[in-house]
Amino acid sequence: MRLSPSGLSVPGPSRRSLLRGAGGAALLAGAGIPLLSACGGSGSSSDPKTVTLGSNASDAVPKKAFAEIYAAFKKQSGITVDVNTKDHNTFQEQINSYLQGTPDDVFNWFAGYRMQFFAAKKLATPIDDVWAKIGDNFPDAMKKLAKGEDGKYYFVPLYTYPWALFYRKSVFQQHGYKVPATWDELVALCKQMKKDGLVPIAFGDKDAWPAMGTFDQINFRLNGYDFHVELMGGKASWTDAKVKAVFDHWSEILPYHQDGFMGRTWQDAAQTLVSKKAGMYLLGSFVAQQFTSKADLDDLDFFAFPEINSAYGQDTVEAPTDGFMVSKAPKNKAGVTKLLEYLGTPEAEAIYLKADSSVVAASSKADTSSYTPLQKKAYEMISGAKNLTQFMDRDSRPDFTSTVMQPALQKFLQNPKGVDSLLSSIERQKKTIFASS
Amino acid sequence: MTTDTTTKTPEAAAVPPPGAASRTARARQGHRRLLTRRDRFTLALMAGVPTVLHVALVWVTALASIALAFTSWDGIGFSSIKWVGLDNFQQLFNDNPQFWPAVQHNIIWFVVLILIPTPLGLFLAVQLDKKIRFSRVYQTAFFLPVVMSLAVTGFVWQLIYNPDTGLINSLIGANKPGHYIDWIGDPHLNLWAVLVAASWRHTGYMMILYLAGLKGVDPSLREASSLDGANEWQTFKNVIFPTLRPTNTVVLVVTIIEALRAFDLVFVFNKGAQGTELLSILITNNIIGESSRIGYGSAIAVVLLVISLAVIIPYLVATFRKERRA
């Protein structure tokens, strides 16, 4: 079968290509892919004054923030951004068929492996010309995140946010707790909190991804950034003693996690921090969205996951970064370039941050004067980091993390003693998945 | 039934009685003349369109997923389809920690549905058939869960089972640290918790099927048995239930289908986390979404297909054989 994906979208197909297309469509349908979702792009964009953009910003706050950016861009350049918004999770789930069909010129996406994957599959257009202009706006760590495996740029970051241990200043003050700097101090603090009748670490893993955040933190604190990359890239073995050590550390603090976590969403877990029933919560800074009262929000603070191995200290920050990519054949290339150049400026970032204060700008030139104290701290943490990671499911193959790691970590949480057989099972499955392409 | 006629006709055509050949030819011509152009067009349209749809949506897709089960494909471009033989099945049977639990859960699902909600539905139907007061109200109340989408059912029950704010844990005080009963997450509990929800719905479904069956029972049968001095239980056991045979057939098939296609309820409930793995959810997790292990997911789908066929084919064969005899 020599069918290229573009075979489905050639204008004015010959009879044969039409038949091939129909055969392909039948095959796709047989495989259960929602075919119609591939028809997301609008056909009206050969117009030089319009750029189409596929957006996953379906929540009210980011949707409005993005709309304001595009309005400002129109004022500056006269180019209209025609936004096609889809539900956040649906967008993610349909991304494969979306990018193969007739995608919009530009689309929202994430940095890391998930971006490099589509770049390597030739479903994205390199944008080195854009980076020649916006390169100075970004720190080196961000530049690294924006490149594909071939060294070309494919991604324009807009904002980022750190993962850390969040806590209430007033609770720490009331009980006289100190921010733990080392693993032993963290364990001691957990013990003390339990004695004081608090839930030491709030936790909810119903959606299966929060546990990946805990694994990441312990892993790169214990084994360093390079090992994180090797492990996520499928090169290091999961049966390695280093991985076992991560789970041993995790087992040590697992009794201090909020119980009943398998049926709890992260939002519900965050509520225990809001109501001051929990001492700490390991999550991304979007946890702040759950703090609806201003007084509670001002009381919220965070610290980086404590040092475990002095060789690595706290040099790595997990900072998932969201931004934009260009689809394989944009209809209005000139307009796209202009739009991306604008999106890479501190001004565009400032507009976004005004509406959503739970994240910080990806650019090192962005104006930080209007940041909340929480944002300032997050910004310092990220800009001071030696390495930035994206999150397990953004740094590794999504098929591996969703079908193997999510259930495996949940299994570990239920039965921490069965680590050995669990790890060899992960390794076996990893080998076949990473060997497949 | 059809086999008889098809085996006869070719013989008849192959060895035509001498002299009859010209007659059959004339008859065939006559047939053709009977149908006008418009008739033939309509016939082609009415038989053709459903046939094309059926072939494209059932046969081609089923065969395509069987073919894909022996390949590895990430869904990007047809050139990336790679033939891997039986690898997918080997991985599935040996390495996938979720596969055997999923098969087991599908079977448990069926057994529970047939043992609890089905007799319960029959019981309710018998009671409602007695024309008790407010029987319409009860009918509506019991049938309501069936009308609702399973996704809604899953959502509602998930609220009831919520460990912190759910109805059950709040009532029995199991939402404090150290006392949590994790109905949704605990792998020893969650399948049963979700089966309660499934049974709640299935009871109504079974009730309506049996109620329809009971309405079709000839009242004279009941009269006759009461004249013979049978009590209520005897009447039901020896007279009414045997006449419900066609309904039982439908009930069995419906329940098997429900058990094999169980998906939406669990997906909304906890996305098929440990304890509630189901084949349908494994297929979805592997194929839909970013993971796109289409070959591997198809292999699971083929397993599900084989199980369905293994259950349905012997059953249908037996039923048709019985019907023919009757």
Structure description:
The complex is a heterodimer of chains A (437) and B (326). Chain A has 437 residues and is an alpha/beta fold. Chain A has helices spanning 15-30, 60-77, 88-93, 95-100, 113-120, 128-134, 140-145, 169-175, 183-195, 210-232, 241-253, 266-274, 294-299, 333-343, 346-355, 373-383, 392-395, 398-414, 419-435, and strands spanning 50-55, 80-85, 106-110, 155-160, 163-168, 199-202, 278-284, 300-303, 316-318, 321-326, 360-361, 387-389. Chain A has two domains: 5-22 and 35-159 and 321-373, 3-Layer(aba) Sandwich (D-Maltodextrin-Binding Protein, domain 2); 163-318 and 397-435, D-Maltodextrin-Binding Protein, domain 2. In chain A, the strands form three sheets. Chain A has a six-stranded mixed β-sheet. Chain A has a four-stranded mixed β-sheet with strand order 6-7-5-8. The longest helix of chain A has 23 residues, at 210-232. By secondary structure, chain B is mainly α. Chain B has a domain at 99-276: Orthogonal Bundle (MetI-like fold). Chain B is 74% helix and 1% strand. A two-stranded antiparallel ribbon of chain B has the order 1-2. Residues 1-21 of chain B have low confidence and may be disordered. Classes of the chains: A alpha/beta (437), B mainly alpha (326). Chains A and B meet through helix 1, helix 4, helix 18 and helix 19 of A and helix 3, helix 15 and helix 16 of B. Chain A: This is Sugar ABC transporter substrate-binding protein. Chain A: InterPro entries: Bact_solute-bd_prot1 (IPR050490), SBP (IPR006059), TAT_signal (IPR006311).
